What does this fold into?
Amino acid sequence: MKLAAIFHRSYISRDNFRFARQAGCTHLVLHLVERVQGLPMRQADEFCFGFTRAQGRMWSYGEIEAIQRMAKEEGLAVEALENLDPSFLCDIMLNGPRKPQQLESLKDLLRSMGRLKIPVLGYDFSLAGVWGRVNGPFARGKAIAPAYLEERLPVQEPLSLGTLHNLVYDPDAPEGTLPAISHEELWQRLAHFLRELTPVAEEEGVRLAAHPDDPPVPVLRQTPRILCDPAGMHRLLDSVPSRSNALRLCVGTVQEMPGVDAYEVVETFSRRGAISYVHCRNVRGKVPHYTEVFIDEGDVDIFRVLRILRDNGFDGAVIPDHTPQMTCGAPWHAGMAHALGYLRAAMAAIEGR
Ligand SMILES: [Mn+2]
It folds into this structure.
């Protein structure tokens, strides 16, 4: 098992790579989506993360190689690229005219990753993204963390055209909202994406890694969500059986699923060899009420999760995903350092080091 840190685009820097190494990480997970915040856009609601700068221009080999070289200089290996820019797959997800070009461009990304020996590409197949959560002093010591509280959800308007997964990818899209589609239609679109990309991923030694829908509810903002329970996760794997068609197992999201035993899910999918890497975070509660909390205070016994992974031969990366903000001059870094330290100790304990 490998301990990895995750950095969003704006946090990719030599200093932050040193921070990760100092916390004991050997690997990195990089979120390359470049989002610009603060622009006035008619499509943006309070949950919008901003505008994506890529506009369909795929991350190049050279761009990724430069970041990987800096990581190597700091003693770190890049384990995964996490999440795609919505402008890379909007027409794949929405059945638009640029679908063939977007698939080709994603195949190019897989080829770049193969050449660079970056083994995992994380993605979401979620239309509405992480919409609807509120931030508040919900974690230990009044630390600020997100919560999903069904009675406090705003009115669930359909998605504006030009938006996907909490981002505006086309600020000039016509006014209007996404037409309704069925769960089955979204399954067909996901299956097409997987049938096209999995063979290339296999050739390149890369694993595609789907994240379950967070929040794990079957419908959000009038859009279907197909990865909100273990049955959906099995169906995804069964649709194109291959080591390159895998999951990014988010322990927090799985624990939030109503009626689901997270340990059973970790057991089943790790035994199946389907977990590429793990988002290891903790929550308290389940849909319809849960809050993210510190890694050592939620409903999940993290040691038990790591023992299950160990017993099933899991050798991928474990990352903290996200953590509550700690009250100090560097709230994000302090939260991450706490979670990474806890994970490092837990991994050493269960591996008998
Ligand atoms: Mn996650």
Notes: The chain has one domain: 2-350. The first strand starts at residue 2 and ends at 8. The chain has ten helices and 18 strands.
